């Protein structure tokens, strides 16, 4: 997914670029005079889109390149969009508490409050349909997204925060091969991103953490194995405290530090949706 300038939204001989974000309804954001001007001076949809992009200072669009033959299948009607998103899930990118105030008294209020309440977990579209009294669900999602300047995320499966529990959850198994590669990679050509496409900024020892959170190792197992690895490979465990680098060299110091570090690291992985049930 790339961010492209509005002027790039033009058909090509071998394909077409089109929005993958919810498309706004002109009638909701423009008065009759502006709408009449758009219809009179801009005969095709792309030209109208660009006019409104300039008018509302739209700096970027999120686009997908598809074949020219799919052009007639593009959907702009909210009712039809509702049908296309029925199997998806939505969540907020951050717990926007102020969304409660922004949505107060508006048609989107119940849906907005539900998204804040369930954060960081997701809401299924089926559940979301039960929270609107009138209009299209896509319309309300668009209104929330606009109020937050792009704070609504779509998912192909439910997003649920899971804690690390031996025998119940583990780091997503399909990541294992890539994690092993990154643990060996000294050139740092590639980086680790979470299921939500966020850069996790993991360090060398963090990859060892990830591999040990396999649903079999207890917290004490993980601490013991990390200490053994540090001793074997001569890795020094450092911590930045108030701008000072403190090195933990004895086993007792390392154990005390890692006991806290495992809990903190596991909590961070929960927020990244990095655990799965098995």
TrEMBL record:
Protein name in UniProt: Uncharacterized protein
Natural source organism: Campylobacter magnus
